[in-house]
């Protein structure tokens, strides 16, 4: 077991886990999936289509006839990580196809790695399949392939990400996601619910709802109605959450912008239909900083909303991410952020130091903050967040918590409470009486001990 420290990259998805045994002569594809959970869902869809066409999935480079690298291009550091991963795949395998967000800049990739076989952009599934067909022609077995296949999952079997839309309509100056992934395109409600129902039937215990802007789901569809089990369901986040909550699994909402209608989700959490957990990207708290980001500048009203959410659902867990060292950020603006955090008392907090990203409008802003100042502010921010986390977790000692088991090894069981999302939040560890547990089990635990970010307890 390992404790969960504050993540320097709160946008990261869990590491992929592939367990496959190809039959003799079966063409085999490897996958390296980088970046956020949305990219992980793309990887799952690509591999599901390939498996249905007769390809096997390799867990390593040497067992693969070709390797797909699904890249991230959100930050310059993520771009460098993607280029490193492409280079490693070329060294270890040689036949490499590149897709994902960085694929929107094919010259950037081929300039660094001219030997890649193909480059496709984000969610271009058909183009990826065509590139695979050219690199490694399919050899389907008519007795076992070309049949409806259960989806390939790159996460543990007991939880799964469900992507409800692509793209984003916001124009934040530090972000190039709309340029890479386009404007908001929501999936039909019935398609999401059918996917979620199949996942639950296959044993998934937790559905993690993701998109670039979950609150805006259905806006582009004008909240149209879709048939579902003899009735019609509106393409709206509140209606979708209610229907997902009826499937019997945990439902966790990520990337929820604090629009006024978010308050309609809180009663669903109080009723137990949806986990009492909101992941909201506040980014900053000072009005002037938010304006320079081209973000909604209403930090004071946000505090009122948070108070109302907690009044309606006292158990709610609030997670967010912030940027420190944004161009023009003064010490006064940063101190306002710290004071706001003191008042907001968020449960889970991640933080980025601002980075220039090629194509972002924020690059052209004046008064960029020196690296040493950004580091100092990050350190002070995380120190404040740690103190809040430590105090909040200490209050949970002696309480009963329902947990889901993620991993069991010789030392104990690593679990999560309803307040913890995979990879980015804390864990609850059980180190006595855990031998009968398996990943995906749900048990009730009494909390015995609390640390900075993690809890320890025993089964009751």
SSE order and pairing:
Elements (H helix, E strand, L loop, with lengths): L27 E6 L3 H16 L3 E3 L7 E6 L4 H17 L3 E5 L5 H7 L5 E2 L5 H11 L23 E5 L1 E2 L10 H5 L3 E2 L2 H13 L4 E5 L14 E4 L2 E4 L2 H9 L4 E4 L12 H6 L5 E3 L7 H7 L5 H14 L4 E8 L6 H14 L3 E6 L17 H24 L5 E10 L2 E6 L10 E3 L11 E9 L4 E5 L1
Parallel strand pairs: 1-2, 1-3, 3-4, 4-5, 6-9, 9-12, 13-14, 14-15, 18-20
Antiparallel strand pairs: 7-8, 10-11, 16-17, 16-19, 17-18, 19-20
Protein name: Ribosomal protein uS12 methylthiotransferase RimO
Family: Belongs to the methylthiotransferase family. RimO subfamily.
Main location: cytoplasm
Keywords, separated by commas or semicolons:
460 residues; 12 helices; pyruvate-formate lyase- activating enzyme; Rossmann fold; alpha/beta; 31% helix; five-stranded parallel beta sheet; five-stranded mixed barrel; OB fold (Dihydrolipoamide Acetyltransferase, E2P); 20 strands; S-adenosyl-L-methionine
Structural class computed from helices and strand pairing: alpha/beta
The radius of gyration over CA amounts to 22 Å
- Kindly state the percentage of residues in helix: 25-40%
**What is the count of β-strands?**
20
Query: What integer is the average pLDDT?
Result: 88
CATH topology assignment of the largest domain: pyruvate-formate lyase- activating enzyme
Task: Characterize the main sheet.
Answer: 5 strands, parallel
**Which consecutive residue ranges, at least 5 long each, have pLDDT under 50?**
1-11, 142-149
Instruction: Give the class-level CATH name of the largest domain.
Output: Alpha Beta
| Overall shape | globular
Count of DSSP-assigned helices: 12
Strand content: 15-25%
Quickly give the CATH architecture of the largest domain: Alpha-Beta Horseshoe
What's the domain count?
3
The termini sit apart by 21 Å
Strand order across the largest sheet: 2-1-3-4-5
**CATH superfamily of the largest domain, called what?**
tm_1862 like domain
């Amino acid at each position: 077991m390992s404790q969960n420290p504050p993540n320097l990259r709160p946008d990261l998805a869990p590491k992929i886990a592939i367990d496959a045994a190809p039959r003799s002569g079966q063409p085999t594809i490897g996958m390296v999936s980088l970046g956020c959970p949305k990219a992980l869902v793309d990887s799952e869809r690509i591999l599901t289509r390939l498996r249905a066409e007769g390809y096997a999935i390799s867990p390593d480079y040497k067992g693969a006839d070709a390797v797909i690298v699904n890249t991230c291009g959100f930050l310059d550091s993520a771009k460098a990580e993607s280029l490193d991963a492409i280079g490693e795949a070329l060294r270890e395998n040689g036949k490499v196809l590149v897709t994902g967000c960085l694929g929107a800049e094919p010259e950037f990739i081929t300039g660094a790695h001219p030997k890649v076989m193909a480059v496709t952009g984000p969610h271009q599934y058909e183009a990826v399949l065509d590139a695979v067909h050219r690199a490694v022609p399919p050899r389907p077995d008519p007795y076992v392939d070309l049949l409806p296949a259960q989806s390939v999952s790159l996460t543990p079997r007991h939880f799964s990400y469900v992507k409800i839309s692509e793209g984003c309509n916001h124009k934040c100056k530090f972000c190039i996601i709309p340029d890479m992934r386009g404007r908001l395109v929501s999936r039909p409600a019935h398609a999401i619910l059918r996917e979620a129902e199949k996942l639950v039937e296959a044993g998934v215990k937790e559905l993690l709802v993701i998109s670039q802007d979950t609150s805006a789901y259905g806006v582009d569809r004008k909240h149209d109605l879709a048939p579902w089990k003899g009735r019609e369901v509106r393409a709206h986040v509140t209606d979708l959450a209610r229907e997902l909550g009826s499937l019997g699994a945990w439902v966790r909402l990520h990337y929820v912008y604090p629009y006024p209608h978010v308050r309609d989700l809180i009663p669903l959490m109080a009723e137990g239909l949806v986990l009492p957990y909101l992941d909201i990207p506040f980014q900053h708290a000072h009005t002037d900083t938010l304006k320079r980001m081209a973000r909604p500048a209403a930090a004071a009203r946000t505090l009122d909303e948070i108070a109302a959410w907690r009044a309606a659902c006292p158990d709610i867990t609030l997670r967010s991410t912030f940027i420190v060292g944004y161009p023009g950020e003064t010490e006064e603006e940063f101190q306002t952020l710290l004071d706001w955090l003191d008042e907001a008392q968020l449960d889970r907090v991640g933080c980025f130091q601002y980075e220039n990203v090629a194509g972002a409008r924020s690059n052209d802003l004046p008064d960029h903050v020196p690296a040493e100042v950004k580091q100092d502010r990050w350190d002070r921010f995380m120190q404040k967040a740690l103190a809040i986390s430590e105090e909040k977790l200490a209050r949970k000692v002696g309480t009963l918590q329902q947990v889901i088991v993620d991993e069991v090894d010789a030392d104990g069981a690593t679990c999560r409470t309803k307040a913890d999302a995979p990879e980015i939040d804390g864990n609850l560890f059980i180190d006595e009486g855990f031998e009968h547990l398996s990943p995906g089990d749900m048990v009730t635990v009494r909390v015995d001990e609390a640390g900075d970010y993690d809890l320890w307890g025993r089964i009751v």
